[in-house]
Design brief:
This protein is α+β, with helices and mostly antiparallel strands. About 55% of the residues lie in helices and about 20% in strands. It has 9 helices and 5 strands; from the N terminus they run E-H-H-E-E-H-E-H-E-H-H-H-H-H. The protein has a 5-stranded mixed β-sheet. The longest helix is centred in the middle third of the chain and has 20 residues. It is globular. The N and C termini lie close together (about 10 Å).
């Protein structure tokens, strides 16, 4: 089982073509683990990539949700092997499910959907992603500043010094930003994917 992400730009007629910038961001990061085939433009304003690791897949989806400019479809399933060098040339159930998911995302309240052979698993992962999307959408710039620094491993005291605020203010911003909820959501969605694909 692998994970295929099909991502389609929202409102490209208004915002212009964001695909080149997204591809650079998705493919250049050395920390991008679990990427079996790099992201490529497949058609129009759409990109697609293949991943092998659940946590890396969920982390990437969260990054896309933060950008708030993309329809995100996650397909879970098998692919025809060996995988070709180009993502565009790949085929198999996971690609079909990803196409179905991104189509559904276009009418989804949170612009992200999940499809796979196990409908219950797909719905469970999708539910967690929707809840996380709701948290992320309400997060302020101040909340993101704290969340990003916490993700880098800084302590609340270090963040307070960096941002020029008290440690208690850091804690308050983290709570308002739903940082713990996001962390637990990432973990739960990843574990669901791992358990479901291992079964």
């Amino acid at each position: 089982m692998v994970f295929v992400l099909t991502v389609d730009q929202r409102g490209s007629r208004v915002s212009g073509d964001l695909v080149p910038e997204l591809l650079t961001d998705l493919n250049r990061r050395p920390r991008r683990t679990g990427l079996l085939r790099k992201f490529e433009r497949t058609a129009g304003d759409e990109v697609q990539g293949v991943l092998s690791e659940a946590r890396a897949t969920i982390d990437l989806i969260v990054e896309l949700l933060r950008l708030d400019a993309w329809y995100v479809g996650l397909g879970i399933g098998e692919v025809a092997e060996p995988l070709p060098r180009s993502t565009r040339a790949g085929n198999g159930d996971a690609f079909v499910y990803a196409r179905e998911a991104v189509t559904k995302a276009k009418s989804s309240p949170h612009h992200v959907n999940v499809c796979g052979p196990d409908d219950r698993l797909a719905e469970q992962v999708e539910t967690v992603l929707w809840l996380m999307a709701s948290v992320l959408r309400r997060r302020s710039e101040r909340g993101w500043a704290v969340a990003d620094l916490l993700a880098e491993g800084l302590t609340r005291r270090e963040i307070g010094v960096k941002l020029g605020i008290s440690q208690s203010a850091v804690t308050q911003r983290a709570q308002a930003a739903g940082v713990v909820e996001e962390q637990r959501g990432r973990l739960l969605a990843s574990e669901l994917l791992e358990l479901g694909t291992a079964a």
